[in-house]
Amino acid sequence: MRGEFEPPAVLGDRAVWEAPLRARKHCLYALICALWILPGLLGRSPWHPDELLLAPAAAQMAREGLALAPLLLGEPFLSQPPLYLWLAALSAKVFAFALPLHEGARLINIPLLAFGFLFLYLAGAGRYGAKTGWLAVLLALGAAGFMVRAHLLETGVAAFFGASAMLWGALLLRTRALAGGAVCGGALGFLFLAAGTAAGFAAAFFLPLLFLHSEWRRGAAAGMLVAAACALPLLFLWPAVLAQREPEVFALWLRTVIPPFAPGNIAQLPALFAWALFPALPIAAAGFAMRRLRARAEGALFAAALFFALAALTLLFGEGAAEEKTYLALPALSLVAARALQKLPDDAAVVLDWFALLIVGVFCAGAAWLLWLCLLLGAPEFVAGYVADVFPGNELPPPSVFAVVAGAAVTVLWCSLIANFGRSNERAVVNWSCGVTVAWLLFNALWLGYADSGKSYQGMAEEIRQRLRGGCIALETSVAPRPVLAQLEYWGATVGGSECGFFLRKDGDDDYAAAEQSPLWTGGRAGKTQYLLYRVK
Questions:
Q1: Phi first, then psi: what are they for 397, rounded to 5°?
Q2: Which residue of 117, 138, 164, 217 shows the fewest CB atoms closer than 10 Å?
């Protein structure tokens, strides 16, 4: 039929993509995903939290070659799983001819996010149709905390990709046992090597627990065996090679395999979930609270709810609940929320719709333009002064004509979208995801340079490098945090062992040896924590 979309055979049966969605809707939703994924990866320095460590580690491997255990400041870097770093290093090396290493490394997020969204779509569409698949994708895309984190070098991106693949593979097990088993096995190994052992344990427990539902007790056993056969080499090959070639490093790695249990994290979960998993979490909760969802009656819903529960438990491990760990739970939660939207009353998401109009349309988009104009013009003075007090030292770069025109264009498109006041649950999700995308595009068009001016360590490293005059900073005697020293070395200020003639300390730290002499240099990032450079006696 004219206007219909014919998917490639590799992406599944035609029923996964069939009506009522036509080609224009598939293209529109895919465009929203592309506009959300691509901006924010280039044109800035490494940012907090994990990029300060992951970018230098990936850059070193891009320059010197992949290592079994990634190195940071000359020491094994085992606090993060190796596979994501290997992929980032390969990406940095491929694009080194045109991009700085940290920007080239970030580009690995593009295929991980794109295929993560694709697998999530296939998981929803394979059971409930194309509309459910796209709703799940748009809900994941609209997650409030994921917008920034997905564009950083963080293992949360790998966790999102692996969780989406695991969910799709699990649902595929019911009809195509061998293919589903291969996907599940590959996803399990990927999560273990790229997202961490806690994520790997969640996925490993997920597969056998599927047998609690009758749909997997009928014919999925063969697929489970295939999953085990695919996962075992991925789980044990790297540790075995590491144990053989670098036994000391392997002994250090073993201490990180089982994270310490930290029940105090329970108190942090509500606030963390409210930020990182909005709006999928309240929509899914409303579906269960109104008894519109019954996990026992639907195998796909049971699998998604089970994986979400196991992923949420991983936040109880480690020292503090980390936001990037929540994105292991995001694909499953988005699928549950998408299913809930289709069963809730048609006006159930009207709150989300108005929230999108007011918060994204008025607050984010309006405030982004008004504050930018105030800083650009320096008037009114009380507004520009207030922003300068909140972000001391940040500087607004000269405006780019292309960025301003692009920002204005997406703002006009957003206004034209919300001018159609037709209301439905699906439209509310589309409005929200488009609003989040517009907010992200405006931030990158107007505010990216301003934010980067206060986050980058490049200027600080250049000042210190000039003071070193070919010398280096001693790692053992420096009191500065490890991420700061890693950034200084990445930007050209050498950090070495005890033979180095300089050390760095954070302003305010007690250090009697340093107090006896005057610092050679005092400074830091713009308006941020100050550091002092001393010569070793």
A1: -70, 165
A2: 217
- Residue written as tokens 């998408």? 338
Q: What are the φ/ψ torsions at residue 194 (nearest 5 degrees)?
A: -115, -25
Asked if 16 and 122 count as a contact pair (C-beta separation under 8 A), the reply is yes
Residue type, 438: V
Q: How far apart are CA 205 and CA 227, in angstroms?
A: 13
397 and 529 inside one domain: no
pLDDT 10s digits, 110-167: 999 999 999 999 999 988 888 899 999 999 999 988 988 999 999 999 999 999 999 9
Pairing label, strands 495-496, 473-474: parallel
Q: State both tokens at 164.
A: 């989406």
Looking at per-residue pLDDT, the higher value among 423 and 453 belongs to 453
**Domain limits at 446?**
350-454
Tokens of 118: 């694709």
Residue whose entry in the numeric block shows the structure tokens 């009353």? 345
Q: pLDDT tens digits for 462-492?
A: 999 999 988 999 988 888 889 999 999 999 9
Tell me, what amino acid is at 129? G
In a domain, 400, yes or no: yes
Q: Are 131 and 21 in contact (CB under 8 A)?
A: yes
Pair 165, 295 in one domain: yes
* Owner of token pair 């599940």: 184
Same domain? 264 vs 401: no
Number of domains observed in the structure of the chain = 4
Q: Tokens representing 86?
A: 């290997």
Cα 160 to Cα 146: distance, rounded to the nearest angstrom:
10
Give the residue from 117, 116, 94 showing the smallest Cα distance to 105. 94
Q: Both 189 and 289 in a single domain? A: yes
pLDDT digits (tens, 9 = 90+) for 347-393: 777 777 777 777 776 767 788 898 898 888 888 888 888 888 888 88
Could you give the angle at which helices 130-141 and 23-37 cross, rounded to 10 degrees? 20
Structure tokens at 255: 């201490």
